[in-house]
Amino acid sequence: MSARTRRQKAALAAQSDENETPVSNGTAQKSPKRSKSASTEKEVKENVYLFAPNLIGYLRVVLTIASLYYMPFHPRTCSLLYSVSCLLDALDGYAARYFNQSTTFGAVLDMVTDRCTTACLLVFLSSAWPRWAIIFQSLIALDMASHYMHMYATLSMGGSSQSHKKVEASRSWILYWYYNSKTVLFICCALNEVFFIGLYLLSFSSPTLSPSLLKPLTESTAQTAPTNLYESPWSAGALELARANKIDSFWPWLITGISAPVMALKQIINVVQMVKASNWLVEGDMAKRKEQLRGKRH
Question: What is the enzyme's class at the highest EC level (predicted)?
Fold first, then answer.
């Protein structure tokens, strides 16, 4: 036998000894091999708060707060910040699908941001036109009630993993059409916001809707006028503020008129959504009561 063959046999014998462990009765038992997956697999830790769509959601919140700051006295800047925040609403959904980071927290964050953003703008319109405040207040109530009931019904009846955008055609064809077509959903949400932005700009530019724009500045109103934020009317800040508030009403009227039918459709969808969510919750209540009655009989 050659030296090379003897070395190979010795190596095989040593390997077999390592794989065997002695037991109390003197026999040898093969030790279980560790699986590669157990030794090499590392626990993946994810921070849902830092998911890409949620980071976009935080940016939307910041932009919304900034737009609220400029809302009373700088309509151009406010409209720009508000519009960017609304456009990012479409981007976070795309990011969630692209990175496979769809979460319940992200869905709720998105919906809460949408509702609060629109509500804050409607609150401003209520103060701009107190005579029509009840209409804007009703729109706030309908928007929040409809989406809250729909979200709650989806989570309680469909399960915690169920998306509020997954609506069966048998439950409501209009909600199925609204939620399952990304184009329809984007157009309805975007033009709904455009309508309210148009009204906001008209409060600064249309004497027809805001007759106070034609009234001369009196001593009593001058104390609350935006131009009095600066001591000198010819300062850079005062001139910029005056320029910002000098808006022609043609474009606000145009975008408001074009988006009005879609805004009306969006409110109809909100009513249908609230009714269908109510019916779904009632179905669940009736099913639970039937089970309770059966339990009592048995």
Answer: transferase
Sequence-separated contacts (24+) of 208-212 with Cβ below 8 Å? 208/249, 209/129, 210/128, 210/129
Considering just the CA atoms, what is the radius of gyration of the chain in Å? 32
Apex CA 55: angle with CA 50 and CA 61, to 5°?
135
3-class DSSP assignment, residue 30: strand
pLDDT, tens digit (0-9, with 9 covering 90-100), for 231-255:
566 666 666 666 667 788 899 999 9
The CA distances from residue 90 to 145, 148, 150, 217, in Å, are 22, 20, 20, 43
Decide if 114 is catalytic: yes
Query: Active site residue: 110, 114, 143, 285, which one?
Result: 114
